[in-house]
Amino acid sequence: MGVGEKKKEVNNNRRKLILKAAQEIFSQKSLMDSNISEIAKKAGIADSIIYNYFKNKEDLLFYALSDKLKDIEKDLKLHLEGILDPASKLGKMIWYHLYINDRVPGGTQILKALLFECRSNKNFYTHEGYNTLRGYTRFMSQILQQGVDENVFRPDINVILVRNLIFGLLDEESLSCLASKEIESTLSDFSGIMDLIFAIISKNETPPPGNNDDKENRILKAAIQVFSNKGYNTATISDIAGAANVAEGTIYTYFDNKKDMLFSIPKKRFCALKNSMGEMFNIKMPVRKLRRFIRLLFTTFMGDRDFLRVFLLDIKLNKQFYASPVYKDYINYISILEDILEEGKEQCVFRKSINPRLFRHLFVGAFNHLATRWLILSKEKPIDMMQEIEDVLDLLCRSVVVNISVLNDFEDRID
Fold first, then answer.
1. Backbone torsions φ then ψ of 183, nearest 5 degrees
2. Which of 20, 90, 146, 153 is the right S-S partner for 201, CB 3.0 to 4.6 Å?
3. Calpha distance 235→310 (Å, rounded)
4. Angle at which helices 86-103 and 128-149 pack, to 10 degrees?
5. Domains in the chain, start-ordered, CATH in brackets?
6. Phi then psi for 329, rounded to 5 degrees?
């Protein structure tokens, strides 16, 4: 080995050492709370050496996730070797995600923590590290497209939408296990997950008030705008007080601290949404009720981009959210889905085998992925987004109905 090759190998090894140290530190602390010095100490090098490989702490975070994803993808491809048919390949890829949740908890927690940090940072979506995440998700798209090309999956599926639904469901499963502790393991849900997914893509026909309140609301409205424009970590109580035109001390009359204010934002929104849904429950047809509920959530959130940005980036991807009391309010609202599903089962419109919690994850995961893409990455016109919402509604309903003719009948009735 020549001098140049030895030097290259040393650089590669050192870079890898820095990335591994960064993965551990960033998974234990947030980007804001960690620093280059502790990463350098963990790697056994001087602080200055890190800047030979990475521009700054944020750049290091994004590459740390990229490095972790490359390891995961390499291992996944080993699991898929020798599997030729797309249905088995898709099942194996989903099984692998659940497997690393349950069997490699330390590594999974590092991966999920890095994803939390990166996906809640707008700069990540223009960074080279994002391309690794895109490449990984594209791998599933290729499997789905193979299924379409080989006439195994429905020829009319939107591959990108279905991919987002699947990854969204898997994200929610991970959070349910690793963050909120709602379930102890995810592998036990494998058959239920595949039941939902194959119902979507299979070719067969069985798919599937007062002044004080006004002031509090004014503060929350100002907080949404400030958090959306500056980001939660950068925003200060003083910024919010100025935007709300109140004294800084007034804010502490209503909220204990900035975090309390952040988590009060969705609580208010979910309570208002739930109180506005009385009319919906006069609807007798479960399919119509399911579509109305899902459409209401999509359109309500998409109608307030500041709230959507704060909810997606600062709340939903904040690990503290899942340990907060407001998480129960969130689940209480989303659980309306489960009531609708049970009603549909009783009327023999929805399949008895549906796991309501898994369907909730499918829906919420799809919403998160689509809304993030619309908010940060895309330039879609409102009419394009509305059409995509309707397409998602069709896919979600297909996953639960006893027979596709139920959807056809529903369409006939509303025409």
1. -130, 155
2. 153
3. 12
4. 140
5. 1-54 (1.10.10.60), 209-255 (1.10.10.60), 264-414 (1.10.357.10)
6. -65, -40
**Max Cα-Cα span within the chain:** 78
Tokens of 30: 């947030």
CA 336 to the chain's CA centroid: 20
Cβ(69)–Cβ(56) below 8 Å: no
Task: Look at the block and give the residue holding tokens 């109608």.
Answer: 303
What pLDDT shows up at residue 407?
Answer: 61
| Contacts of 138 by beta carbon, 8 Å cutoff, 6+ apart | none
By the 10 Å C-beta count (0-12 exposed, 13-18 middle, 19+ buried), 77 is classed as exposed
Token pair of 218, please?
A: 């004014």
Task: Give the position of tokens 């349910």.
Answer: 176
Which pLDDT score, from 0 to 100, does residue 380 have? Answer: 57
For residue 381, give both structure tokens: 């016109």
Asked if 314 and 225 touch (Cβ cutoff 8 Å), the reply is no
What is the rounded distance in angstroms from the CA atom of residue 351 to the CA atom of residue 407?
13
Closest Cα partner for 367 from 318, 290, 295? 295
Question: Two tokens at 88?
Answer: 């088995």
- Output the CA angle 376-382-384, nearest 5 degrees: 90
pLDDT block averages, 10 residues each, the chain of length 415: 68 90 88 92 92 93 92 86 87 88 71 85 92 90 93 90 94 86 88 92 56 75 92 90 84 88 86 66 80 84 84 88 87 86 92 92 90 73 75 91 68 45
- Residue 381's identity, in one-letter code, is K
Per-residue confidence (pLDDT) for residue 158, from 0 to 100? 93
pTM of this structure: 0.71
CA distance 329 to 19: 38
